[in-house]
Amino acid sequence: MDYKYIEQLLERYWNCETTLEEEDILRTFFSQKEVPAHLLRYRSLFTYEQTIKKAKLSDDFDEKILKLIESEEAPVKARTISFTQRLRPLFKAAAVIAILLTLGNAAQHSFKQENAQKEYNYDHYQDTYKDPEVAYDQVSYALQMVARGLNDSVISDSTAALSNQTVGKDR
Amino acid sequence: MKKAMLLLVLTITSSMAVSAQDFASRFMMDFNKDTTIHCQTISPKMMERLVDMHREKNGRTEARQLIAKLKSARIIQGADKPKYFLHAEKMLKHNRQRFIPLHQSTAHGNNQIFVRRKEDCIIELIMLNKDSATGTFTIVNLTGDMDDDFIRILSGNK
């Protein structure tokens, strides 16, 4: 069987050129029982309106829905709130304050313990020496320098005191 | 509540991150392009290793006592150019509320010691030394929890 006419109509339908009569022809064609296989995929498009028209709510639909709504309605009960329940937010706030105070105390304690550790940022420090022996020599040298500096001052202070005394006696 | 906690955490984190730099770091920042001056660093980690090393070897008690009170040591050395000493001195004088003079002498060149105290502890010690005989300039910068015993041991008054 030749379906050229139907194919032409379809082509015009896709291009939005069909008239209302031609669209009726297409609907009638696709509502037939036998439709060629290569046109079968368009069937649902033209029989959609008829299928929708057939779909109807059952007679007991309203009844079913009403029953469903009635069964879901929760009974309203009066709730008594005890004194402890009423104070619960206050307990929560007190607990939060207690936690914060504990944390604050702990932080303050650790800050006091390690004064220098917290005072300076040692993250960027890069060791000049990998060998602890060499590093030890450098620390010893630094300490010796400071010791010498301190002793120098002691000597110079006492020398100054002596010279002051001598000057005093001379006068 | 969540916002308040976040704010608290942020405040603590930022205050810890903005810890101060020591004197040597600041000094070296000003002379970062100067190749004639060098800074040697002994970090807190290395200092801990030195304490452990001493404990294992049963080393001199005094030395162990001194090192145990240190967190870091930095030694800046360079040729004796007046600009170094003057700049260091200027920095210390500029921060005179932070660094208090401990000792000053001219017995062997120019020697000045400053300390930064926090409560009963000396948390930073700076020594400036200008040795005209050897033609060297040295800054010794120690940080740690140093007390008066530390100074007493160093100055030899036991």
What fraction of residues of chain B sit in β-strands?
25-35%
**Amino-to-carboxy terminus distance of chain B:** 56 Å
Category from helices, strands and their pairing of chain A: mainly alpha
Residues in helices of chain A, as a percent range: over 70%
Specify Rg of chain A, calculated over alpha carbons.
50 Å
The total count of helices of chain B amounts to 6
- Number of extended strands of chain A: 0
Which residues of chain A form runs of ≥5 with pLDDT under 50? 155-171
Estimated radius of gyration of chain B? 18 Å
Overall, the morphology of chain B is globular
Please outline the major beta sheet of chain B.
6 strands, antiparallel
Order of helices and strands of chain A: HHHHHHH
Number of strands of chain B: 6
The helix/strand series of chain B, from N terminus to C terminus, equals HHEHHEHEEEEH
Major β-sheet strand ordering of chain B: 1-2-6-5-4-3
